[in-house]
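// run 5 | inverse folding | seed 20
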């Protein structure tokens, strides 16, 4: 099991990134909460990782905070929730907000996330209620932290197109992702900031 990577960030285009560790490039996928805190390309980065081994692939997921990885591992234990949906949940809702959502039995908040219907939301709340106590989110600030710190650019060129592509990769339909991005005043904004504002707006609808 690969539990942690420390190396040079050589590419990032949400939700994918690559870290060079001793000349070996590790491809990972990460939630937007991690992308908000990534350094610029060429800088060193340390990520907590989770490896998923399938018959046809070995998939590595990276998280800036240990709490996010812990919650990811809790989410994929829920019946019907795979790694892709878990990343979508962590991209649209901070770890501490998800814990509060479970405590409040807030089904509408979960249904606003792509790929989650009422039945899935109900199952999430029921199964997470028994497991969420094992997740320490004290060090996780998620989206609120990104609002206090400046969002770092994922890619310098074509931020609007990159934002749409990232939202589609997170589970939104192309037309829906395009509408979400169009609703953001995106002039001079990096793609990560566009994504952050689009997700924030979607969460409050």
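// decoded
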């Amino acid at each position: 099991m690969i539990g942690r990577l420390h190396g040079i960030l050589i590419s990032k285009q949400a939700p994918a990134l690559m870290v060079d560790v001793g000349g070996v490039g590790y491809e990972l996928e990460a939630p937007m909460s991690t992308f908000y805190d990534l350094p610029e390309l060429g800088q060193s980065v340390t990520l907590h990782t989770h490896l998923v081994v399938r018959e046809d692939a070995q998939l590595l997921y990276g998280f800036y905070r240990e709490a996010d990885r812990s919650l990811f591992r809790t989410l994929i234990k829920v019946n019907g929730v795979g790694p892709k949906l878990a990343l979508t949940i962590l991209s649209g809702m901070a770890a501490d907000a998800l814990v509060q959502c479970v405590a409040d039995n807030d089904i509408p908040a979960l249904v606003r996330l792509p790929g989650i219907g009422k039945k899935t939301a109900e199952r999430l709340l029921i199964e997470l209620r028994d497991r969420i106590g094992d997740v320490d989110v004290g060090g996780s600030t998620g989206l609120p932290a990104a609002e206090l710190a400046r969002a770092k650019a994922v890619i310098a060129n074509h931020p609007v197109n990159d934002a749409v592509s990232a939202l589609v990769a997170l589970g939104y339909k192309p037309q829906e992702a395009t509408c979400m991005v169009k609703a953001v005043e995106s002039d001079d904004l990096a793609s990560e900031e566009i994504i952050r504002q689009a997700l924030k707006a979607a969460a409050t609808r």
